[in-house]
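Extended Data, record PIGQ acetylglucosaminyltransferase
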Amino acid sequence: MVLKVFFPSCCSSADSGILIGRWISEQNSAVILAVVHFPFIPVQVKQYLGEVQRVTKVSVSVLGSWSNSKQEKEESLSEFLEDLGTIFCHEPWIQISKEGDSKFWSCSILQKHSKNPQEEEIILVYYDQRKVMLSHLHPSLETAGQRAEDASKLSAIFDTVARSQVLFMTDRYDEGPIKLTHWQSDGVEASIIVELLKQASVPACMLLTFLLSLLSGICRSRVLKFWPLSFLWSKLSTCEQLGHRLQHLQVISSNKKAQNQKQLMRKANIFVSLLIDVALGILLMSWLYRKNRIGHLADTLIPVADHVAEELQDLLQWLMGAPAGLKMNRALDQVLGRFFLYHIHLWISYIHLLSPFIEMILWYVGLSACLGLTVALCILSDIIALLTFHIYCFYVYGARLYCLKIYGLSSLWRLFRGKKWNVLRQRVDSCSYDLDQLFIGTLLFTILLFLLPTTALYYLVFTLLRLLVVIVQGLIHLLVDLIDSLPLYSLIIRLCRSYRLAAGVKFKVLEQQNGKPLRLLMQINPLSYGGVVQTYRLPTYSCYPRDSWASLCKKLFLGELIYPWKHKGDKQN
């Protein structure tokens, strides 16, 4: 048989005493939790362990003795340590000793009450109590008492340490009859600032919960469900982002305790994401309001819009001629060119009509940066959508006209082959046509076929312009999603305290010699950075299309509309 003794590394320099911990018979293992120093009264030790066992529901007992002899071992001390096995009556009785400056340890087993004592191979495993306690590789404390404990797994070791937290609350400064050595024996880890924040967070969370419930009630009211407001709420990315942040605030201010480590990390990641978002937004706002940068931005916006309109006019004049030497249909080319030129003229008039109010609009828009950098970026995306609305209209006109001709040509092509589209059964069936239908179909097919190059050229040009705007908006929304979903708190924890995000354990051999116990060091394996992002990544509101290149090319060829993103509740045509 192999006996495994899990010994805390913080007790390696403790004074001589007795070992208290838990014996796991299924694994033939002993988990040492602390060392009780001399002098002590055995009755008081038994009473103390009974109280700990009643609170923690862990069968804590005296497992053996610990001797740290910096001088020569006294004969009376060795006899006293052997007699302790008779007082506390634990089978087997573990005796661990460290001799002076020697790096070798001795560990022996006494089985006084066994009729057939057997020699057992001993493995001494060192573990860091602090890391084991904070690694959260153990089952949840709320569910540990409800389900049967699986003692055949290593998680029983972690569960024992985690549930014995009451044992670690006493330090060497306590004026009690029992002195212990454990990972918090030099003082319980605490911070005055953290404790004050905990006390202040309760009324702050109650006030924030009330305000958020009031705000969410207003958002769910029927007034916002009428057509103009509901349309704006579903189409403007700023409204979507505000609703997303409102959900985050409700999660943070909730008084419901996190059930597991993942929920706790999610709350912390949301809080840090909001904090950094607001800090970056305030920094942006302070930069905008210095040196009258908003006035300079407003003065630059009108000339840029005029320059874009002039470039579009030059492009349309080029298309109305002989672009790249192509022979276009003169009549259709002139009609489409004048139609789009008239829209550009309306757009220029619209921009100049708003020019006196642009600086005031930008001034108030800059104040929204105090809500966060993501809100400011979403407003920038909406402004780009409004400023390029004429390009979107050109793209929709060209796509619909091109789509109409493509579907018309495909329908007339089926007419030549004696086929037709069955709407009820959603399939192509055979059909017989008379001579008049074939003659009219031939004329229409010829007209649409010769007009197709002109329409396709306009569609191609405006599709490229639309894709340019979509790429810019997509990059902005990627940055917004990066700020919203990146688990910053988890990444900081992984960088500073990697054992808090543990993926498992590994064992390192410290000492292996004949006649001595095998000494191992149990180390915590942290999650990789990719695993941290994948495990604790926060959900976002945007749903970017995951179309393949073949699907995208098919949409472009058939003239279907392309959207940069799809919000909740949107329906693509």
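Summary. Confidence is low (pLDDT under 50) at residues 141-152, 543-547, 565-573.
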